[in-house]
Every structure is written in structure tokens, then in C-alpha cells.
Fold Alcohol dehydrogenase catalytic domain-containing protein.
Amino acid sequence: MTAVPTETLAAVLRSADGQFDVEKVAIDAPAANEVLVRVVAAGMCHTDSLARAIGNFPIVPGHEGAGVVEAIGSAVTSLRPGDHVVMSFDSCGICAACHSGRPYHCAEFELLNFGNRRAAAHLADGKGVANRWFGQSSFAGYALAGERNAVKIPDHVDLRLAGPLGCGIMTGAGSVMNVMQLRSGDSIAVFGAGAVGLAAVMAAKLSGAGEIVAVDIHENRRALALELGADRVVDPAAGDELAVQVVGNGAPFDFSLDTTARAEVMSAATEVIGRPGLAVLVGAGFEPLTLAPASLAGKAVAYAYLGHANPQVFLPRLISLWQRGMFPFDRLVTSFPLADINQAEVASAAGSAIKPVLMMEGQ
């Protein structure tokens, strides 16, 4: 018997400069290794804007979804209908990195998360729509996810808040806890106090950092950074060269994190660290970074996907910290109904909403 496609509302993007259209789509039944998730909420991340640059239209973006498993494929063994899940990035499961528990280094990462052109959903006119963005395309009432990138969470965790753990929050926290492995007394400068940067500030505070400095152009974000653990904040527009402002009268930093992907800011992130020092870059963008080799003497620069986190292990850890009041990422969230997705995107770009989360109730 052929499974009947699931009809739902989804936010469809048709062009690089167009708005989202919220319309009906029909989603195929899950393949053998997939699950169908009724999405409760999905965070909006800057990485979703890359769907505009990459193309592959029409497409349903969204890669921070949380919801309830409605159906499972024939080969799925770790999930069942009714399970609550957070959806994260996709990985192949068969390469050497995946076998060693490092799915963020998956040999097929870019293909699976940015370039998967499979259209497992269709518009009202029958035309296919790409719905495998980061293995989920969760700007919709229902989404297909792989068994590997659907992380089971306790039923009592609020699904309206949990979605951002799957990418932005995980990236910021993981950059500090996994990539840097920041220790008590270490210092860190965070460039960009959006959701990723503020998650890094919280993780650095949790890890016992000696000094935390947050840099952002928005006053509201700088204020929140201070509340969440930063010792000092910097307004890039205040005057002096950025690296000079950040270091101030103190010593260079042990670590820096750039979330902006802007060349001049990434350069500053390498300038403010000492010897030895590590600058971690995580921003989603295309600007090249040019450095004189000698400027990196005693220093290291790394570009890290998703905070080098294995979602099946790291997300439960973050949830536990949050429930104990040690990692209040919920303070970053501003909720929008799916119908207001275009307003949410504008608010995110303007800095007034740090982590927009789209609510799918009734979709």
C-alpha cells in the first residue's frame, strides 16, 4: 500500500532576493532511515540565509527544528512515534569521521547539509520543492529527518524552546567547550553577540573563564552579554582600531571566537590572541581572510563546524545544564508565528531579535 503524503504549511523560498511564501506542501512518507516529525517550533539561524546564495529553488529552509515523531521508516530502530526530538545537522554515518563519533567532520557534510537536491515534498501544482536543508527543512508544520540527526530528548523539555540547541546554541557552546576546551582562568574575546556569540559567553562563564569580552554593534546585545557573564563589552563603532579596543590595557587573550564572517573582524580575532592562542571562526559567509604568515607565529586559527559537537551526546548535556539554571539560552529567544517569518528575518538582521523561533501550532 502506498503511503499518502502529509500535507502541511511550509515557508517556501523561490529566489535569492524574494520573501518567504507560506503555502501548502505535500511531504513524502519517510524513507527507510528517516522519520516524519511534527514540528512544534524551529529557530531561525543566519545559516538559513545561505539558502539564498546557494540557490536550488524552490526550497524550504530551517535547520533548528524541534517536534514529535509521527512516523518512522522501516530501518529506524532508535526512535518511535511519540518521541520528542531536536533536529540537528545531517551526516552520512559511514565515513571514518562518523565512525569515530565526529559527525561534524563527515566527508559528505557539505553535500548532505547544503547541497542535497532531493525533493521529498511537492507544491500544490505538483512541482518538487527541496526539503532536505540540513537534513530537515523545518520551516514547516512537518519535516523529514534522518534517524542520525534527530536527537531524542525528555518529554518534559519545552519543544517551543529546544530547537535552537540543534545549531546556533550548540555551535557557540561547543566552540568553547569542545574546540577551545577553555579552562578555568583562560580569557576569551567573542566577536558578535548574537545567539552563537552569547552561547559562547555563557559557556565560557560556565567553564570558569578569567576574562570574557563581547563585541557587538547593538547596544541591547552588549547589555545582555554583560548579564550573561561577560566582564566587558566593546562597541566597534566607538573609535579606536577594533583589536586595540578589545585588548585595552590588558594582556592578549587565550582564545577568540568570530561569529561574523567579516574579513576585518576575523582579522581582529587573530590579532587579539597571544602566544600561544587560538582563534576559532564559525561565521557563515564568503569573505576571504588574508593574513601574513608571520602574524600567526605562536598562534592557531581554526574554522569549526557546529562547535565540533556530536549532537546525540552534546545536546543532552546542554539540556541538563539549562535545566539546572547554568545555561539560560532561553533568554535569547523571541517567538514568531510561522506566518510572520518575513518579519522574523527582518528582526534578526536588525539585531532586535537575537534568536527568532518560529511557532508551528496549527500548521
